[in-house]
Specification:
The structure is a single chain. The protein is mostly helical. The chain has 4 helices and no strands. The protein is elongated.
Length: 133
């Protein structure tokens, strides 16, 4: 009454697929290297070469190749760059903690402290009220 199915099901396991698989550790390495590379760009823009060199070492370790560095300027205010760097270092810290990379976790925490201190030392801008002229 019923004819047997002659084609493979679309619901087959992904384990049988012919594409390369990455482990969770590999995915975290890629994610961490990306966060650190973005942090390196902001750090270089701020002119923090010593800190940038330490970040570049970790990116090179994770990617097995030295990162591309450039002196591109976005003309953003220093406070904005410090906030961006702080956020990127926080993301790197979360990923480093989840992959148990102590060296990067310490570097990210120190970087967050550096940018927090820089923000505290910069003159505060007045808060803009919503709807105020």
């Amino acid at each position: 009454m019923y004819e047997p199915i002659r084609t493979k099901s679309v619901h087959t396991s992904a384990d049988d697929a012919d594409f390369p698989h990455r482990s969770r550790e590999d995915e975290l390495d890629i994610q961490l290297a990306g966060h650190l590379a973005a942090l390196l760009a902001v750090t270089d823009e701020l002119g923090l070469t010593a800190q940038g060199d330490r970040i570049a070492e970790q990116v090179a370790r994770l990617r097995s190749a030295p990162p591309a560095r450039h002196a591109g300027r976005s003309e953003a205010p220093a406070a904005t760059l410090h906030r961006r760097a702080h956020a990127l270092a926080g993301r790197a810290l979360v990923v480093a903690a989840s992959r148990a990379d102590t060296a990067v976790a310490i570097l990210a925490a120190e970087t967050m402290d550096t940018h927090t201190a820089a923000l505290a030392a910069s003159p505060a801008r007045p808060a803009a009220l919503v709807g105020a002229p």
